[in-house]
């Protein structure tokens, strides 16, 4: 019995844990590794946050949002953190039982080029994570710059493979997330344009906390607690105690604390004051919020790429956005 207890404790130390006074089943969360300290990693690594989630948190690394949605649909975990709009819209458009409950960030990716690229006219082949938010943004940017058809898009199954191809000079540029930008800059990369620039053109890259709807209905208290702590983590990593909260989270990220602190400092988490406007509009419905509008544009992108047969209807889109957990958090539900 002692050996089993020690083994369980060791496993909890590797996967991340939160106190579970009621003995609730483990809460498995799909998450992304990299330089930016995602809020799920911060919560899992810091007991003063994890203890407010009435379930043991176990993090499961994923390489892409598309893979994360596939694993969620298969039952590997009921929650994914940091998933972008194309994978999420693509998933519910094809029947996956999932909803967005919190908007975490506006992605701060960038188009990284080598020293041979001086301007847009020099671009030949751009690597990107297939079916991702970055793919959505890149193709929108190419359209806006009248480069569609002139520049080849190379699809990759993971950002690690994309970065490796660029460093070996197999491709001259990559549109890649913030987590990889510091590393590529160290190898001589230059950012030609950023996600913020592309978002101004109407192609916003949104990263969300997504939950299987059946899980949210069965365990509403756990989802509520998770939303509360994720929101708190995003505030803490921007404050005076950032190093305290980010450093323990790096055991899940695969980077040095100094790199994670630097990368997270400038990462564009959605301010609490803007969260409501993403989840619902002035009329109080999710159908009129900024997220719903983003999902419609995303649906159009998926159709043009052959990844969806049709753009989801406004009613379908609204049914996969749940502002109730954030509403309750704002009404004192995190006390």
Structure overview:
The chain has 335 residues and is α/β, with parallel strands linked by helices. The protein has two domains: 2-106 and 205-333, Periplasmic binding protein-like II (D-Maltodextrin-Binding Protein, domain 2); 110-199, 3-Layer(aba) Sandwich (D-Maltodextrin-Binding Protein, domain 2). Helices cover 47% and strands 16% of the residues. It is built from 17 helices and ten strands. The protein has helices spanning 2-15, 39-45, 47-50, 65-74, 85-93, 133-144, 159-167, 181-186, 195-199, 213-218, 220-236, 242-253, 257-265, 272-279, 290-304, 314-319, 324-333; strands at residues 27-31, 57-61, 79-84, 98-106, 110-113, 125-129, 152-156, 173-176, 190-194, 206-212. The strands form two sheets. The chain has a five-stranded mixed β-sheet with strand order 2-1-3-10-4, sandwiched between helices. Helix 6 links the parallel strand 6 and strand 7. Helix 2 crosses helix 12 and helix 11 crosses helix 17. The longest helix is centred in the C-terminal third of the chain and has 17 residues, at 220-236. The relative contact order is 0.17. Mean pLDDT is 90; it is low at 1-15 and 17-22.
State the end-to-end distance.
37 Å
CATH fold topology of the largest domain: D-Maltodextrin-Binding Protein, domain 2
- CATH architecture of the largest domain, by name, is 3-Layer(aba) Sandwich
Q: How would you state the average pLDDT, rounded?
A: 90
Quick one: overall form?
globular
Q: Residue share in helices?
A: 40-55%
> Strand order of the main beta sheet, please?
2-1-3-10-4
- Main beta sheet: 5 strands, mixed
* Order of secondary-structure elements: HEHHEHEHEEEHEHEHEHEHHHHHHHH
Q: Please name the fourth-level CATH homologous superfamily of the largest domain.
A: Periplasmic binding protein-like II
Number of strand elements: 10
Query: Structural class, judged by helices and strands?
Result: alpha/beta
In the CATH hierarchy, what is the class of the largest domain?
Alpha Beta
Uncertain runs with pLDDT below 50, 5 residues or more?
A: 1-15, 17-22
Domain count: the total is 2
> Which percent band covers the strand fraction?
15-25%
